[in-house]
Amino acid sequence: MDSLYSINDLAQKLGISISTIRKYEQDYRLNIMRNESNNRVYTESDIEVFKKILELKSEGANIHLIRKILAKEDVAHEVPEVIEENNFNLYSIDLFQQQLIKNIDDTMTKKVNSLKEEFDIILDKKLEEQGQRIREQIKAENQELIHYIENYRKEKKSIWTKLFKK
């Protein structure tokens, strides 16, 4: 038969507090034997389970993942609840992912529309400025042309006037 350890022995052996042991028992749904005085007693296999929990926690595993791993190793005795809870979490993660993608898509659409509006405003402004410059240039060229024509008429008139002195 395996050696049996008290909760104090287990805490000392693992280097964790008694309250941590109790919390792990509750969090990971561990069924720990009790003696005739109703005190917890731990076996070598219980110690291995706690070592596994500590190892997984040090690697960054969350409570749900550790429960699932313990269930697969047939350590925890509430497998259907663990599977159901993890399926819910996977479903929640999937919904969260879909919502996140939708929010990103909506945000990108709004940003693209905003940029299009800004571009249209800037384009209209630049086109108006360019149109104004072209109108001013045409007006200046027309003035030069009118001035040239007036000078040309004066010169022609003076030639005719000299020839036919009236």
From TrEMBL:
Residue ranges of every copy of the HTH merR-type domain listed in the record: 4-72
CDD domains given in the database record: HTH_MerR-like
Coiled coil: 124-155
Domain of life per record: Bacteria
Keywords recorded for this protein, A-Z: Coiled coil
PROSITE patterns: HTH_MERR_2
Classification via InterPro entries: MerR-type_HTH_dom, MerR_fam
PANTHER family the record matches: CHROMOSOME-ANCHORING PROTEIN RACA, REDOX-CYCLING DRUG-SENSING TRANSCRIPTIONAL ACTIVATOR SOXR
Protein name as it appears in the record: MerR family transcriptional regulator
Protein species of origin: Alkaliphilus flagellatus
